[in-house]
Design goal:
This protein is mostly helical and 133 residues long. The protein contains 4 helices and 2 strands; from the N terminus they run αααβαβ. It has helices at 29-44, 46-67, 81-91, 108-121, and strands at residues 99-103, 124-128. A two-stranded parallel ribbon has the order 1-2. Helix 3 packs parallel to helix 4.
Length: 133
């Protein structure tokens, strides 16, 4: 066990300090174990797995909605965070002159969403510089 109990939840190399958990974020050990269980279920009976997947996803969405104090129907699955930022960014109803505040550490693909809107509708992307040691 390391001095950092959070780090122990991951399989990360203890000799490296990771700053980018967005594009290459590690999966917690417990999540990976459950993922592998579901992978095994899929591999053992793929037809049954895909017949049941919609109901399982709806059940999971309802549970997440309960956790977030909202109806599960208010939530959607997206393939990745960048896709989600794109949906939110383009669905916010931004108008010319509105400003989006970000930092110089923003993930490029997410920043591209707002740069696109900057050119398309005239919002302003404001980048706040944040220094790292």
């Amino acid at each position: 066990m390391s001095a950092n109990p959070i780090r122990d939840l991951f399989q990360l190399d203890p000799t490296v300090t990771f700053l980018n958990q967005g594009s290459f974020g590690a999966t917690p050990k417990a999540v990976m174990a459950v993922y592998q269980e579901w992978q095994n279920i899929l591999e053992q009976q793929p037809v049954a797995y895909f017949r049941a997947i919609d109901e399982r996803l709806a059940t999971a969405r309802a549970a997440l909605g309960n956790f977030l104090n909202t109806d599960g129907d208010n939530l959607v699955y997206v393939p990745n965070a960048t896709f989600g930022v794109n949906i939110v960014g383009q669905g916010m109803g931004l108008k010319a002159g509105d400003e989006i505040l970000t930092t110089n550490h923003e993930y490029g693909a997410c920043l591209n969403v707002f740069r696109f809107l900057e050119g398309k509708i005239g919002i302003k992307v404001v980048e706040a510089p944040v220094s790292l040691p």
